[in-house]
Amino acid sequence: MPNNTHYPSLERLFEQVTRHDDYQAFEKIFKSTYGDLLRYIMGFTSDKGEAENVVSEVFYKLWKHRGSIHISTSVKSYLYSATRNQALDGLRKTQSAQVMMKKTSSALSAHVISPEEKLIGQELEECIQNAINQLPEQRQLIFRLNREEGLKYREIAQRLNISIKTVETQMSRSLKALREAIPH
């Protein structure tokens, strides 16, 4: 859907977000770029729900870390790069590196992964796996069913004979624990 809304430049809006904690400016960035980022990320995954999660997580992190983000390119380039990186992190968690590379090779053809980036990715994966292994048993099971087996919350609730709300709560706690365990 084309966006005919006239907003100040993304750079000016981003400045308002980072310098003045301007949530309305943040919403304008979100509204003007969300659809394009979602379409972009659909090149990585055919699961629209997962694509929505990726883009939402990018905006969550943008707002959460707004005071410490410094962009050396354009805001638009930064958002596309952050979205791509978020999708890759998700793919690393759910698929082997070989399958991931096949799915993302065309989308990343312009970006060659350096040995340093590869090492950072491996260290991050190890950190994530250690954090997952530290979760309480049921929380770990729910997390793995969702992230590794791709089950929806409703399917997990049915399989484990628990409420969807319990699944949501356990996933939220899992993600919080992972965010705290992963170095920034």
General description of the model:
This protein is 71% helix and 0% strand. It is built from nine helices and no strands. It has helices at residues 10-20, 23-41, 48-64, 75-94, 97-104, 115-133, 137-147, 153-160, 164-181. Helix 2 packs across helix 4 and helix 3 packs across helix 4 (75-94). The protein starts with 9 loop residues before the first helix and ends with a helix. Mean pLDDT is 80; it is low at 1-6 and 96-100.
Which labels suit this protein?
184 residues, 9 helices, mainly alpha, disordered N terminus
Task: Give a brief rundown of this model.
This protein is mainly α and 184 residues long. The protein contains nine helices and no strands. Helix 6 (115-133) packs across helix 9.
Q: What topology does this entry show?
A:
Layout: H1 10-20, H2 23-41, H3 48-64, H4 75-94, H5 97-104, H6 115-133, H7 137-147, H8 153-160, H9 164-181
Helix pairs in contact: 1-2, 2-3, 2-4, 3-4, 6-9, 7-9, 8-9
The H/E string reads HHHHHHHHH
* Radius of gyration of CA atoms, rounded to a whole number: 18 Å
Distance between the first and last residues' Cα: 35 Å
Summarize the biggest pleated sheet.
none
User: What ranges have pLDDT less than 50 throughout 5 or more consecutive residues?
Assistant: 1-6, 96-100
Estimate the mean pLDDT confidence: 80
Structural class: mainly alpha
Label the overall shape.
globular
Please bin the fraction of helical residues: over 70%
